[in-house]
Design goal:
With 354 residues, the chain is of the alpha/beta class. It has two domains: 135 residues, Four Helix Bundle (Hemerythrin (Met), subunit A), CATH 1.20.120; 200 residues, Rossmann fold. It is built from eleven helices and 14 strands. A seven-stranded mixed β-sheet has the order 6-5-4-7-10-13-14, with helices on both faces. Strands 11-8-9-12 form a four-stranded mixed β-sheet, with helices on one face. A hairpin with a 2-residue loop joins strand 13 and strand 14. The protein is globular, with a radius of gyration of 20 Å. It catalyses: 5-(methylsulfanyl)-alpha-D-ribose 1-phosphate = 5-(methylsulfanyl)-D-ribulose 1-phosphate. Its EC number is 5.3.1.23. Catalyzes the interconversion of methylthioribose-1-phosphate (MTR-1-P) into methylthioribulose-1-phosphate (MTRu-1-P). Keywords: Amino-acid biosynthesis, Isomerase, Methionine biosynthesis.
Length: 354
């Protein structure tokens, strides 16, 4: 079997090319972005989303914006680099991959700046090389996560798997994180029936996950978020697998709002709950989930998200984009390095640092 998944990020020498995920599933529209404001807006407004994809887009965005300016000196470029980095970092506060990618670009910039013979063109080449490396490593990471994650599934069994939000090709540059084991397993003859929670309020599960799984040839069923308990009770779900936007040092994992509720239900019904994420999603400086900043988004996403008002204009709306699943509810975290069973601070540190 061959799996076909949509490509969310492309690039050319002077523009960042993104598949506008706000238009899916009805329209596949690519955006050609060449300004800092358009790239910031694309990240902020979820035209590109998913922690790894945000990081990749920001890295290429740094290169594109710097390449389009004629700086009088490398000092002037360095000053603008700092301002641009801070600007992009302010777009999404929870997804740690954004900051990881920006810091990686900063380190490469600083290393090149220390060289005796460095020009604007050589600096830009170095930044493009670094962006390409982040992109390629993310693709390899997807495969590695998929290989490790597939070890948790018995090929002789037909698996009912629940997902929440989107952590596939649209959220990365390859097979994804949470969906990578499903894509690889599908290619190798594993039998999966995927139940994709719609993921209120922006419906990433129904608009994006169901879209790309169906396009990849997998069996997928869309569920309203409030149906999760029933289908678990009915015995349709054998495992839950989700992605993450930030994982604290103790294994607490921030993911799309509603994830923690799914984890609590899975724990109640004795269903394994897996988190799949690259090592770049771990934030060892954040000791526990309570310390993770949770992004608050516009009220209109809840009461007028898709053009039809579903709530009164004069009523307050609470719209956190993420919640945190306690490590005690996580059966295992799957990374490109392997599997952390029943994560703790000690196990996470050993896994990442050796």
């Amino acid at each position: 079997m061959h799996t076909t998944i949509p490509v969310s990020i492309q690039h050319d020498p002077v523009r960042l090319v993104l598949l506008d995920q706000t238009k899916l599933p009805e329209e596949e529209l690519f955006l050609y972005l060449d300004s800092r404001d358009s790239i910031y807006e694309a990240i902020k407004k979820l035209r590109v989303r998913g922690a790894p994809a945000i990081g990749i887009a920001a890295a290429y965005g740094m290169y594109v914006c710097l390449a389009r300016q004629a700086y009088p000196s490398l000092e002037a470029m360095a000053h603008d680099f700092t301002a641009l980095k801070q600007y992009f970092a302010s777009s999404r506060p929870t997804a740690v991959n954004l900051f990881w990618a920006l810091e990686r670009m900063q380190k490469r910039f600083d290393a090149e700046l220390r060289k005796q013979e460095i020009s604007r063109s050589l600096m830009l080449k170095a930044l493009l090389d670094e962006s390409n490396a982040i992109f390629a490593e993310d693709q390899a990471m997807s495969i590695a996560i998929g290989e490790h994650g597939l070890k948790l599934f018995d090929k002789s069994k037909h698996w009912g798997v629940m997902t929440h939000c989107n952590a596939g090709g649209l959220a990365t540059s390859g097979y994804g994180t949470a969906l990578a084991p499903l894509y690889l397993g599908h290619e190798r003859g594993y039998r999966f029936s995927v139940y994709s929670n719609e993921t209120r309020p922006l419906l990433q599960g129904s608009r994006l996950t169901a879209y790309e799984l169906a396009k990849g040839g997998l069996d997928v069923t869309i569920l309203c978020d409030n149906m999760a308990s029933l289908v678990m009770k009915e015995g349709k779900i054998n495992a839950v697998i989700v992605g993450a936007d930030r994982i604290a040092a103790n294994g607490d994992a921030a993911n799309k709002i509603g994830t923690s509720g799914v984890a609590i239900l899975a724990n109640h019904y004795g269903i394994p709950f897996y988190v799949a994420a690259p090592s770049s999603t771990f934030d060892l400086a954040t000791k526990q989930g309570d310390d993770i900043e949770i992004e608050q988004r516009d009220a209109e996403e809840v009461v007028n998200g898709f053009g039809k008002r579903t709530g009164p204009k004069d009523v307050r709306v609470y719209n956190p984009a993420f919640d945190v699943t306690d490590a005690s509810l996580i059966t295992a975290i799957i990374t490109e390095k392997g599997i952390i069973e029943h994560p703790t601070t000690e196990k996470v540190a050993k896994h990442l640092l050796g």
